[in-house]
Amino acid sequence: MPVDEEEFKLFVCERQKYYWLAFKQFEETEKYSRWNWAACLLSPAWFFYRRMYLYGLLSLLVLIASTFLEKISEPLAFMIQIVSLPLFGLLGSYFYYTHAKDKIRTIKNTIHDPELQKKKIAEAGGTSWSAALLTVLAVIVGGMISYFLGI
After folding, report:
1. Computed over its alpha carbons, how large is the radius of gyration of the chain?
2. Which of 8, 97, 98, 132 has its CA 20 to 30 A from that of 148?
3. Residues ≥6 apart with Cβ < 8 Å to 3
4. Using CA atoms, how far apart are residues 118 and 1, in angstroms rounded to an integer?
5. DSSP character string of 35-82
6. pTM of the model
7. Which has the closest alpha carbon to 1: 149, 150, 147, 110?
8. CB-based contacts of 111: which residues, under 8 Å, 6+ apart?
9. Would you kindly state where each structural domain of the chain is located, as residue ranges?
């Protein structure tokens, strides 16, 4: 079941034009990467802000793992960070595209009333400042605990 521009824009909410152009590129070309500074520099917070909780958790685990690995092997920890952050920057918008498309298709397959579909698409998408801020807070608190415990 195809997903149209209006449905994507309902889902995205913030920065609709930017993401619609990215989504259109993904659909019209074989290119599945598009640079996203927020996804690169703020990976866990950006994923949670965009309500992609699984990706947010995975990027948080990468951050935590690289922090703990610093005690064992600084070069390995640095390598994980130097690879993962640009990877999130390159693929973040594509991850968001597939996430949005899957959510929209699920709604369209289960709800047949067009007006109710629109309402549910808007509810399923959007952004969450509270999730992003809680992520940043968790990273700060985790860093402080790690520092004070000498981990």
Report:
1. 18
2. 132
3. 100, 101, 104, 105, 108
4. 15
5. --HHHHHTHHHHHHHTT-HHHHHHHHHHHHHHHHHHHH-HHHHHHHHH
6. 0.90
7. 110
8. 117, 120
9. 5-149
